[in-house]
Every structure is written in structure tokens, then in C-alpha cells.
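Milestone M4 deliverable, item 7.
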Amino acid sequence: MDRYAAMLHHRKARLVQGDPIAPPLVSAATFHVPDHANGGYSYSRAGSPTWDELEGQLALLEDAPVVAFPSGMAAISAALMAVLRAGQKVVLPSDGYYTTRLFAEEFLKPFGVTATYLPTVEFSTADFAGAAAVFIETPSNPGLDVCDIAAVVARAHAAGAVVIADNTTMTPVLQRPLDLGVDVVVAADTKAPSGHSDLLFGHVASRNAAVLDRVRNWRRLSGAVPGAFEAWLVHRGVETLEVRMARMCASAGVIAERLAGHPGVRRVRYPGLPDDPSHAIAKRQMAGFGFLISFTLADAGVAEKFLADCPFIVQSTSFGATHTSAERRARWGDMVPEGFIRMSVGIEPTEPLWAAIAAALPEN
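Output delivered:
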């Protein structure tokens, strides 16, 4: 818990009489540079005071240096471009965030990088011979399968591969991939860290200085830079992340158990359920089981009716916000049953939220 307290007070040592407690929003594109040799800020594509405040805050949570990006996919693409070269191979999850696979197919492959795909549950025992990078997403999105991060790291490093982990679903509050040996963490701060569905953002964290220098240089040269206002809002959101996660995860645990016992629900996936296939590994490597629940109703029509009827669920394709949201993932092309729903539990009081969900569920 010490790092959450330190994160909230990360500006204190620099404050002087009359300074604002909240970091200032600096929206300048250019800065006064009469002598470039003396350093400082010069042009906001290379650096910004507001980015620095947020990166310092996130670095306390990750226990590693951080580079901020304007979206989660900007962070993912930067990490992949930083570690891969033409002629190399990357291993990606076949059941993870689909846009990562699209990026590999549409951009990495034409640049001469071979992409191969595995289900998340197979990563822990996979042979990574010949791979330059192994990219994991655990729990997987949307199926919530889990792989043993330390086991993946051991196998990948033995093969000479760098390991990148997408930690968006868990955040550093619940899971610490760098502490388990992962080389690079990527995350979409659009989700729980900002928490209010009003911006796009992402970050890369690593304890490998050479890799992070390449990530930072990719940001500068590609122009994939975050806006100052978005960075300022993420900083504000992160201050309440740990508190929001506590409510969201507690409610998710209660709701997942009740969904599992409901006659109208065919299957529930939630790592916190003792009989979930992911439970044993999740309990070992995570500090909590998250706020995402996947469950399956009879068919697409039943699922769509449930989503339309529940007054405390917004139909949204993101997750991690203050409000509970859900969607039928098959409509996006995920390889899941037509009645499969991914639900992100928000910060609503648990019992009113469950009452609304129960009232909207089919009887059988």
C-alpha cells in the first residue's frame, strides 16, 4: 500500500510556497529556448511538463520508468516496433485484443516480421524457439483465460525472446508483470486508470533502459504523442484508481458468483470463482480478480434483450469505467458464442446493481 500513498504525494518534495497541489495543465506546443544547449523543454513532441507529472505518477505504480502515449494501441505498437526487426518472429495471443492482431497482420508482416498465434492457456508451456518477442495478455480479453507469467518469461528468455505483457485488464494495482520478469508492460489507461470514459490514453513501462529509449524515440519520431489535457485528466483519474478498483472488484466477485448460480446463464468466466479454469494461476500471480466478467446467454437475441433491458448497464465497447458496461462480443468478430457477454462492473452500489441485472436476466 505504500506505493499508493507515495503516488498521491509524488509532487510534495518539489512544492514551494504557493504552488498548486494539483499539477498545472501546460498546453504549450513551444517553449522559450534562447539557448538550446542548456536543456529544458523546447517542443512538445519531444516532452511536456504535464506528461512528466503523469509519467512520474505511473512510474510509482509500475516501479519502473514510463512513457505515455495517446492510446493503448499507440503504446502497443510502440513497444512492438521498439523490439522487432525485419526477419524476426513475434508470438501473439489468438484470443486477446483483436486490434493487436490486426496491427501485426497489416503492418508488422509487410515490414518482414512473422506473427504466429497461440491461445493464452498454451503460453505457459509453449516452445518459443526462434521468437524475438512474446506478447501476452493475461487475463485474455474477452475470454478471461490466464497464463503463468513467470513460466512464460522463463521459457521465452531461454529462447532469447523479449516478453511484452498487456496489463490493461488488471492494472498495476492487481498484477505486476515486471515483478514476474516481464521486460515490457503496455496498458490502455483509457480504461480503469482514467476511469471516466472521456479520453484515450496508454503507456509503456520497462526496467530495460535501452528498450525504453527506443520506445521514447518512436514516440518522438512517429509523432504518436499524447495531449496535455488528456495527460492531466489521467493523472487526476489515477489518484482514485485503487479506491475504485476495490469497489469494482468486490462487486464483481459477488455478481459473478450469483451469475454462476442463475438458471438463465449458460457459462460464467471470472478468475475469482474457485472452479474457474483460471483461478489457481490467478490467485498465485494477481492481488485481486478484477472487475471483468464474461458470461453466456442462450443466443444473440436473449443477450441483446438483456443488455437493452438492464437500466444499470450501458452498452459500450470499452471497460474499466465508473459505470457498469457490457456488450455482446460476437458482433465484433471475437470467436465466442453468439450469446457471449463481456461485462465491466463499475462503482455502483452492489445490491442495486445486482437487482437490476437479475431483473433483466432470462428465467432459464
